[in-house]
Design brief:
Helix content is 59%, strand content 12%. By secondary structure, the protein is an alpha+beta fold. A three-stranded antiparallel beta sheet has the order 1-3-2. The longest helix has 29 residues, at 76-104.
């Protein structure tokens, strides 16, 4: 599996515990990051389409109003991919600490 983009990782993370619609995903990421990460709607919907094609998320509900608001949830495959990426990040941090620690000694 290729490394995930920051946006892809954050969307999967936002969906980890509960299904959300697009606006809920944007606000969830914004809230948990203290406003550090803001995903534009155009970026979000591109990420959501790609994640659905990869079967990492799925649509669980679609409202019948004119805007057709969709609710998304992470799949088990998506959770596994998120854990793989999290472990990759953790390894990168550990390698970085080792290298930076060697220079500071």
């Amino acid at each position: 599996m290729n490394p995930m983009s920051e946006s892809t990782y954050l969307v999967l993370l936002a969906l980890y515990h509960e299904p959300l619609h697009g606006y809920g995903i944007i606000k969830g990421i914004e809230k948990v990051s203290g406003g550090t990460f803001i995903i534009a709607p155009g970026t979000l919907y591109g990420v959501l389409n790609n994640l659905q094609k990869q079967k990492l998320i799925e649509t669980v509900q679609q409202e019948k109003d004119s805007r057709k608001k969709k609710t998304y949830c992470i799949t088990e495959q998506g959770k596994e991919a998120l854990h793989v990426e999290f472990n990759r990040f953790r390894n990168m941090i550990n390698f970085t600490k080792q290298i930076l620690g060697e220079r500071e000694q």
